[in-house]
Structures are given as structure tokens and as C-alpha cells.
Amino acid sequence: MKYYGHLRRHDSIQKRILEGKIDGRRGRGRRRQTWLGNIQETSQMKMCEVCETALDGRRWRTVTAHLGDGMAPS
């Protein structure tokens, strides 16, 4: 989770890869879990909220510090 905050705040190749989309058709079968999906599920925030929060380092640290205790601010 902390690494995601780092990626969002810095312009890098990793950020481009993380936010990129691949052209073409989707494969058959069950959808794979994604790292961003796991972050969204763990933080219990919408993806736009996660992205905005990650840009503010202080606020992101507060969110990641309280993930397991049910006290995560919204």
C-alpha cells in the first residue's frame, strides 16, 4: 500500500505501466485479481478516492497506518 502512494506521487515508468491499458479483447474465464483492485478492497475506498489520497503523502500514510484496525479515515 505504501508503495502505491509512492508511485502515484512520482512520474515514472512504473506509474505509466500501472495506469496503462492493453488493447484487444478480454480473455475467457474468471477475471484475475489486480493489485489496484486489492488496494481498493483493502482501503474500502473508491478508486478515484484512492488515487487522490495517494497524491497527498501525509494523508496516504494516515490511511495505510490504520488499515487493519477499522479506524481508516475516509
TrEMBL record:
Gene Ontology molecular function terms on file: endonuclease activity
Keywords: Endonuclease, Hydrolase, Nuclease
Protein name: Endonuclease-reverse transcriptase
Lineage per the UniProt record: Eukaryota, Metazoa, Spiralia, Lophotrochozoa, Mollusca
